[in-house]
Amino acid sequence: MIDTLEILLFLRNYSGLCMDDEEDRLIMAEHIKQFIGEACDRLQRTESPLLTNAHRKQLLENGRAQRDAESRGESIDFYPVVKLFTPEASAIWLLTELHPRDPDVAFGLSDLGIGFPELGSVCVSELQHPGGPWGLPPVERDRHFKATKNLSAYAKEAHEHGRIVT
Questions:
Q1: What is the per-residue pLDDT for 116?
Q2: Is pLDDT above 90 for 142?
Q3: 103 vs 97, 111, 114, CA distance in Å?
Q4: Strand 118-123's sheet: what is its strand order?
Q5: Contact status, residue 98 vs residue 105, Cβ threshold 8 Å
Q6: Which residues lie closer than 8 Å to 14 by C-beta, 6 or more apart?
Q7: Angstrom distance (rounded) from CA 19 to CA 107
Q8: In angstroms, what is the C-alpha Rg of the chain?
């Protein structure tokens, strides 16, 4: 969130500009636009975590249930709990579980937007990095995503189309 000191420092930096001068007004307008954009980005990141508490709880429950099933030689095909994506890079992650002993490791279907979707694990902390994972744009959570099938059905369809289809 923007604090008062940040606003005062911003205004102090530009108080010497002459608002009668067209070039100064354009410079000020561009910097204000950039300042507000950066503040909105920070606000969005703090108000909208990739995984909500409810997501994290369900993903951990799924992870524990999967480990229990694996100890019996079985496997559970969960519906994805959350969809993460990069708006500009076409990367998508459909996550079904978090590892109970290492909740930074999520399992799901990943598609980096290069035509090779795959099932596997990903580090949530890498996805949350402000610069995005592997230099990709920042990752967002699809707030409107509701899974309609289990992960293996999404994976089958993704392999047929060369991308995740939701």
A1: 93
A2: yes
A3: 9, 21, 27
A4: 118-123, 105-111, 92-98, 82-85, 140-141
A5: yes
A6: 28, 31
A7: 55
A8: 21
DSSP string, 4-56: HHHHHHHHHHHTTS-TTSHHHHHHHHHHHHHHHHHHHHHHHHHHS-SS-HHHH
3-state helix, strand, coil in the chain (%, to 5): 45, 15, 40
Instruction: Write the CB contacts of 75 (distance below 8 Å, at least 6 apart in sequence).
Output: 66, 69
Q: Is the pTM of this model over 0.90?
A: no
Could you give the 3-state DSSP secondary structure of residue 67? helix
The pair of structure tokens assigned to 55 is 């997501």
Q: Phi first, then psi: what are they for 101, rounded to 5°? A: -90, -20
The angle formed by the CA atoms of residues 49, 67 and 80, to the nearest 5 degrees, is 40
Q: Is the separation of the CB atoms in 98 and 106 below 8 Å?
A: yes
Tokens of 19: 């608002």
Which two structure tokens, joined as six digits, stand for 140? 């967002």
**CA separation for the pair 76, 65 (Å, rounded):** 8
Residue 103 in this model has a pLDDT that exceeds 70: yes
Mind listing the pLDDT tens digit for each residue in 145-163? 999 999 999 999 999 999 9
Cβ 81 vs Cβ 58: under 8 Å: yes
